[in-house]
Amino acid sequence: MRTGGITTHSTGSPSGFPHEPTLPHRGSTSSGTPPTCFAAEDERADGRLGQELFRWRVLRAYRECCAVCHLRHSELLDAAHILPDRHPKGEPIVPNGLAMCKLHHAAFDSHFLGVRPDLSIELRRDILDETDGPMLRYGLQGFHGKLLHAPRTRGLRPSVDFLAERFELFRKAG
């Protein structure tokens, strides 16, 4: 089906979204249109392909909301990989992604913050024991033991296997 010059599928796509454009135009996540996924435009020096489309799909699945703190400013949201690109299973698919604000994404990538397979958030012991200002107290420590917000659609939820593998990395780092 063609709508507005964009080809769509009437059945579900691999990302789990029905009617997903196959040749989308560039746009922000707040516009509801996916970014271009042409390899020539989306290829970066580090070889990562499809990252704009991955971000769009993940933020859409999480309704443009940080899975940790529920921040809804898309300019401050990232699509964090559960298993990184360089991992054999680190594909840019929604079940390998978490919508996170920049603070929580950095904390997740630095292994300050981990997510258990049951979606509970855990912070490293040294981070929990640290005394600092309100950003540490409310921005990180306050989420220890809370549940991660996840999409309701089963196919868009984080992979339990990916979370288990990533949580082991978090435990070893702390």
List keywords for this structure.
two-stranded antiparallel ribbon; single chain; 174 residues; 28% helix; disordered N terminus; alpha+beta
| Largest β-sheet summary | 2 strands, antiparallel
Discrete helix count: 6
Q: What is the ordering of alpha helices and beta strands?
A: EEHHEEHEEHHH
Cα-based radius of gyration, to the nearest Å? 17 Å
- How many β-strand runs? 6
Q: Given the C-alpha coordinates, what overall shape results? A: globular
Mean pLDDT rating = 81
Structural class: alpha+beta
Strand arrangement in the largest pleated sheet: 1-2
Question: Can you tell me the number of structural domains?
Answer: 1
Tell me the distance between the termini.
51 Å
- Strand percentage: 5-15%
Low-pLDDT parts are 1-15, 17-30, 37-47
Helical fraction equals: 25-40%
Description:
There is one protein chain. It is built from six helices and six strands; from the N terminus they run ββααββαββααα. By secondary structure, the protein is of the alpha+beta class. It has one domain (2-173). The strands form three sheets. Strands 1-2 form a two-stranded antiparallel ribbon. A two-stranded antiparallel ribbon has the order 3-4. A hairpin with a 2-residue loop joins strand 1 and strand 2 (6-7). The radius of gyration is 17 Å and the shape is globular. The N and C termini lie far apart (51 Å).
